[in-house]
Amino acid sequence: MAAKPKLYYFHGRGRMESIRWLLAAAGVEFEEEFLETREQYEKLQKDGCLLFGQVPLVEVDGMMLTQTRFNFYGKDLKERVRIDMYVDGTLDLMAMIMLAPFQRPEEKQETLASILQKAKTRYFPVFEKILKDHGEDFLVGNKFSWADIQMLEAILMVEELNASVLSDFPLLKAFKTRVSNIPTIKKFLQPGSQRKPPPDAHYVDLVSNILQF
Ligand SMILES: N[C@@H](CCC(=O)N[C@@H](CS)C(=O)NCC(=O)O)C(=O)O
Questions:
Q1: Is the same domain home to 44 and 13?
Q2: Atom of ligand 1 nearest to the CA of 66
Q3: Structure confidence by residue, pLDDT tens digits, 86-102
Q4: CA neighbours closer than 13 Å in the CB half-sphere of residue 188
Q5: Could you report the predicted ipTM of this complex, rounded to two decimals?
C-alpha cells in the first residue's frame, strides 16, 4: 500500500488548509510535519524539496509537490475551466482573509470590514447566481468537485467574520448544508480532525519568525 501523503507546513491553516480539505473530502488519510523552527524550513530548502523556496509542501510516493492542487476535477475541459475559475475566485477571497492577521492591528479591522463587503458584493452573489441559473446541487456538472470543497471552506471562513453573512444568499446557505453533510466532509468538520483553527497570535508570530518577515 502506498504511504500516506505527508504535508509539511505550519500548525495552522494558511495555504495548506485547502489541501487538507481536499484530501479529507477524498477520504485520503495524511500525515503532517509541522514547521516549528527556521532550521526545519532551511533544511527543506537545502534538501531541494521546495521548488520556489516556499511551503506548502506535499510528499506523495517520494515526489515533492509544491504549488499543490489535487483532482476532483470535472469530466472534460469545459468543466475543468469552470472549476479553475471558481477555485481561483474563492482562493482570492480566502487569501485576503489569510493575510489579514499579519497586518498591523490598526489596519486589520478596516481590512476585515472590506473583505466582508467584497464577499457580500463581489463573490457570494456570483455563486448564488450560478446555483440559481443551473438549479443543480453542486457548482459544476451537478457533481461534487474541488470548486464545492473550496466554496464551503470560503463560506466558513467568511462566517467566522460575520455569522449571518449568508442571510441574503439562500441557495448558498442550502449548498453549505448539503456539502457539509457529505460524509467525508462531515467527518473533517468534527472536533479532533486535522482541520486547523483560525490563526491566533502565536501562529502569526511563528510564521513571521520562520519566514522572517
Ligand atoms: N503559490 C504558492 C504560494 C506559496 C506561498 O506563498 N508560501 C508562503 C507561506 S504560506 C511562503 O513559503 N513564503 C516564503 C517565501 O515566499 O519566501 C502556493 O500556493 O503554494
A1: yes
A2: 20
A3: 999 999 999 999 999 99
A4: 27
A5: 0.93
- What is the per-residue pLDDT across 10-34, written as a single tens digit (0 to 9) for each? 999 999 999 999 999 999 999 999 9
Is residue 1 situated within a structural domain?
Answer: no
Q: Measured between alpha carbons, how far is 68 from 144 in angstroms, rounded to an integer?
A: 20
Closest atom of ligand 1 to CA, residue 207 = 9
- If asked whether residues 162 and 102 sit together in one domain, one would say yes
User: Does residue 197 contact residue 22 with C-beta atoms inside 8 Å?
Assistant: no
Cα 79 to ligand 1 centroid, rounded to whole Å = 27
Segments forming the whole domain that contains residue 37: 6-70+189-211
Looking at the fold, whether 61 and 81 belong to one and the same domain comes out as: no
Ligand 1 within 6 A of CB of 56: yes
- Measured in angstroms, how far is the CA atom of residue 139 from the centroid of ligand 1? 28
Q: 158: which 3 cell numbers?
A: 467568511
pLDDT one-digit tens code per residue, 195-211: 999 999 999 999 999 99
